[in-house]
Design a protein that fits this description.
Blueprint (H helix, E strand, L loop, with lengths): L1 H14 L17 E4 H27 L14 H5 L10 E8 L5 E7 L6 H11 L8 H17 L10 E6 L4 H15 L4 E5 L4 E4 L2 E4 L2 E3 L1 E5 L11 H9 L4 E3 L5 H4 L2 H11 L7 H10 L3 E3 L5 H6 L4 E5 L8 E3 L5 H14 L3 E5 L6 E7 L2 E16 L2 E10 L14 E4 L4 E3 L6 H16 L5 E2 L2 E2 L5 E4 L1 H27 L1 H4 L7 H7 L11 E7 L5 E7 L6 H15 L10 H17 L6 E6 L3 H14 L5 E6 L3 E4 L2 E4 L2 E3 L1 E5 L2 H6 L15 E2 L6 H4 L2 H9 L7 H10 L3 E2 L10 E5 L9 E2 L13 E5 L6 E7 L2 E16 L2 E10 L8 E3 L1 E3 L2
Keywords: ATP-binding, Ligase, Magnesium, Metal-binding, Nucleotide-binding
Protein name: Glutathionylspermidine synthase pre-ATP-grasp-like domain-containing protein
InterPro entries: GSPS_pre-ATP-grasp-like_dom
Length: 824
């Protein structure tokens, strides 16, 4: 991954003029941030509505010579600029800084009309992400917008230069803006402009001309703050020429009226006073997206002292998060000192409602690689001539977006494919306890708590009908591919079993079958990635957990809360029963089956999963004997459980563990002979994660049909036995027979490494879509970012039910069960 990061840095350095520094490889992340399209559309629409309102307000002030109805503070040349007589042109660029609320929706923290940056981030985002990027037309819109302003300006002129000259005005000490000016130069020169990069001491006026290095310029593209414009040489004369329409300044310096944060307080004032200047839609947008804001005044001080965590104090001209004071980030003493400082500063400040920001799980570049962190995203919604043209991300590990602490990532849009339905019920504890007790006393479910944490939730995943159908159809298609590939391994066991990590003893067993079904009960684990695409992670053919939750809890919760949806597991019990009956029929072809054993460990989850299966079939005409795995013994080629001879056995216990343990000597050899294993030993072939690598290896050999090949490439992440064959540096490694996330590592992990002698597969990493789930324990709750995995059960080669759990990026035994239902 370091090589990829270096290549990314060089791309940004040489093609986008990034500043070179010792931190250059820690600024841009190659991992895209995916935002829900619906949320994105709301944010863009709100920005465009507010921009229209701001422009209408400025036009009303300028054209009608009205005084500004909100606090502007003071700065040199303020009156010259604000009361300029120059024609008010549309604003070429502006950026609305947005955040996603912790409770949902977005809010804007400020408007950047004066000299918005982030053009590099937006342009590079499309190049780095491409897929579903909202920034595809950003450079094109930049060029079109600039040409549009130039044409509107020169239609009033009689002497139009053949190749107009643009002076890009920057402060040379601001390296970022200086470097951005080279990027603008490239784009402007592509559409016929000549450019000159000018510092604050390079402008001078001769007659009615503004010159830079003795060249007359036609346009000043201003990357220089209005309130410091007095530092520019000949600034007063430049403003006079702007008044006289002799020079086009982009953005119009009067953008400072829209830039000042006291505008937020005025917008709220108009809302509360029900001003007829603003429309109903604008009122709605202000209420939804602008934190409640008032100007700082002495009468507010007591409230600020009492409830500091509710408020933010800001200077009306603060930039780069300077002079932004967030109450909850201060101690009581620090907060008092801040308020006193604001009082004594005599500079206008405002008080704003504090809005908690949603945390995201993101991967950021660090010194030695990458690190997964909780980040807060500042989304810069960029408008060109009042219309959306791009969006950037700036990430921080705290609430303030400081330039020396942020990092950037590409951004992509996705359609929300996972809908978490939260049960806002004040009697949640009562309902949860009743369901847990019913499952416990009536069904022997003892897994309600894992340590101190509730292991299932009453909130639910609601799958769209189309996603559910895709899971069903994809599962069916993968079953056929697995069966076809498994058959190949059985026919070539001596050659292929060692490739899958299957030793000689087990290889002798798995080459033969007494049944032609894939398995008695198995579970394909599916993930939905951040683009809403379905991806297969693995197949659990030996110990498919979640059967109790899928058959019992899903039904109990469904009946109480979700019966307006469809329960995907309504027929799961019958599918298990039917699968068992048909497997026994296959067993009967070899010998009579009378005594059937059910064995597992005494671990509580293994016990209740095994008992849930037995509970479904216990009325069938067999003598069922259940027990702990250690009670299983071999005598004269037949298995005995607690001394009773067993004709067939269901083992909730991995085959390889049995084979390795000398205590069970002779047991596995019985599974294809006198005491058949109901979960056929041949399914062990598909349990090896190298089985997926074999599938990918067989594609070039034309082993699969065209449709099967398409299915594999669509649903199975590329899996190999060598990372060099992946064509990506973003991958994970997994042991052939790892369980519960054991030893799974990501290539972006700090200190990532592996032993080349290990039996591991390399698999392209799936960026799993996450949810925010309320996790409850005995002392309270927390809202956690979690990654849902949808288990699709298979019985008799058919899709038969769903089991969803959510946990860390690598699902472990701390994951929480999520009831899952389908839209009708």
């Amino acid at each position: 991954m370091r090589r990829k990061q270096r290549e990314l840095s060089e791309e940004l350095l040489f093609n986008y003029y990034m500043i070179s520094s010792k931190w250059e490889e820690e600024i841009y992340s190659p991992f895209p941030f995916c935002i829900d399209r619906a949320l994105f559309n709301c944010m863009v629409q709100a920005a465009e509505v507010l921009d229209n309102l701001v422009n209408r307000l400025l036009k009303n002030i300028v054209e009608n010579k009205k005084s500004i109805p909100f606090e502007m503070g003071d700065f040199p040349l303020k009156d010259n600029i604000i009361y300029s007589n120059g024609k008010l042109m549309p604003f070429f660029w502006c950026r609305y800084d947005a955040f996603i609320r912790e409770s949902g929706g977005v809010f804007f923290s400020e408007f950047n009309y004066d000299k918005p940056c982030a053009q590099r981030e937006i342009a590079a985002s499309y190049k780095l992400c491409g897929k579903n990027s909202p920034n595809e037309k950003f450079i094109e819109e930049f060029k079109k917008g600039f040409l549009c302003l130039w044409e509107e300006y020169n239609c009033r002129k009689s002497d139009i230069p053949k190749k107009p000259i643009v002076a890009i005005l920057v402060s040379p000490s601001h390296y970022e803006e200086l470097h951005l000016s080279y990027l603008y130069s490239d784009w402007l020169e592509e559409i016929g402009f000549e450019t000159i990069i000018a510092g604050d001491k390079n402008l001078h006026v001769e007659g009615k001309s503004v010159k830079v290095f003795d060249k007359k310029v036609d346009v000043i593209l201003r990357q220089f703050p209005t309130e410091f414009f007095y530092e520019v040489s000949s600034s007063e004369k430049v403003i006079e020429l702007f008044d006289q329409d002799e020079i086009l300044i982009i953005n119009d310096p009067r953008a400072i009226i829209a830039q000042v944060k006291s505008l937020f307080a005025y917008l709220w004032e108009m809302v509360l006073e029900k001003s007829d200047f603003i429309t109903e839609e604008e009122v709605r947008v202000i209420r939804n997206t602008i934190p409640y804001t008032i100007m700082f005044n002495n009468s507010s001080i007591d409230e600020l002292y009492k409830n500091k965590d509710k408020y933010v104090i800001k200077s009306i001209y603060g930039r780069y998060s300077e002079e932004v004071y967030i109450g909850c980030m201060h101690s009581e003493e620090e907060w008092k000192e801040t308020i006193q400082y604001v009082i004594e500063s005599n500079r206008p400040h405002l008080i704003q409602e504090f809005c908690p920001i949603r945390k995201e799980k993101v991967i950021r570049p660090v010194e030695n690689g990458y690190k997964e962190v909780d980040g807060f995203c500042n989304l810069g919604v960029y408008l060109t001539l009042g219309k959306f043209s791009g969006i950037c991300t700036r990430w921080s590990e705290d609430y303030l977006t400081r330039d020396d602490r942020i990092w950037i990532s590409p951004i992509a849009l996705r359609d929300a494919s996972i809908n978490l339905l939260e049960l806002n019920d004040e009697f949640r504890i009562k309902h949860w306890n009743e369901i847990n007790e019913k499952a416990m006393f009536e069904h022997q479910y003892t897994g309600g708590y894992g340590n101190l944490q509730e292991t299932f939730t009453l909130d639910s995943i609601i799958l769209s009908k189309s996603m559910y159908n895709e899971i069903e159809e994809a599962t069916k298609a993968i079953i056929n591919i697995f069966k076809k590939t498994k058959s190949l391994v059985q026919k070539n066991s001596e050659l292929l079993c060692p490739v899958l990590g299957i030793n000689d003893n087990i290889a002798k067993l798995v080459k033969n079958d007494y049944t032609d079904t894939l398995c008695f009960i198995g579970r394909f684990d599916w993930a939905i990635n951040t683009f809403g695409e379905l991806k297969l992670l693995e197949f659990n053919s030996e110990t498919p957990a979640g059967i109790m939750e899928a058959t019992v809890l899903n039904e109990l919760i469904y009946k109480r809360f979700y019966n307006e949806y469809t329960n995907p597991n309504a027929d799961f019990k019958e599918a298990i029963r039917s699968s068992f009956v048909n497997i026994i029929k296959d067993c009967q072809r070899k010998h009579l089956v009378k005594n059937v054993g059910f064995v597992s460990t005494i671990y509580y989850e293994d016990l209740y999963n095994t008992s849930s299966i037995l509970d479904i079939i216990k009325d069938l005409p067999f003598n069922f004997i259940s027990g702990e795995i250690s009670g299983l013994k071999e005598e004269n080629g037949k298995l005995y459980l607690y001394g009773t001879p067993i004709d067939a056995v269901y083992r909730y216990y991995p085959l390889d563990w049995l084979e390795k343990d000398t205590y069970y000597s002779g047991v596995v050899e019985c599974f294809n002979n006198n005491s058949l294993s109901i979960n056929s030993v041949s399914t062990f072939i598909t349990q090896s994660k190298a089985f997926l690598a074999l599938i990918w290896e067989l594609i070039p050999q034309n082993f699969y049909s065209v449709e099967e090949k398409k299915c594999i490439e669509k649903y199975i992440p590329k899996t190999t036995l060598s990372e060099k064959m992946l064509n990506t540096e973003d991958y994970c490694i997994k042991p052939f027979f790892g369980r519960e996330g054991q030893s799974v590592k990501f290539s972006f992990d700090d200190g990532f490494g592996y032993n080349s002698e290990q039996d591991i597969i390399f698999q392209e990493r799936i960026d799993i879509d996450n949810i925010r789930l309320n996790v409850y324990n005995t002392i309270g709750s927390s809202n956690e970012i979690m990654y849902p995995i949808i288990g699709a059960y298979v019985t008799e080669d058919k899709f038969s039910g769903i089991y969803t759990r959510a946990g860390e990026r690598v699902t472990d035994n701390w994951a929480i069960y999520l009831p899952t239902y389908i839209e009708r």
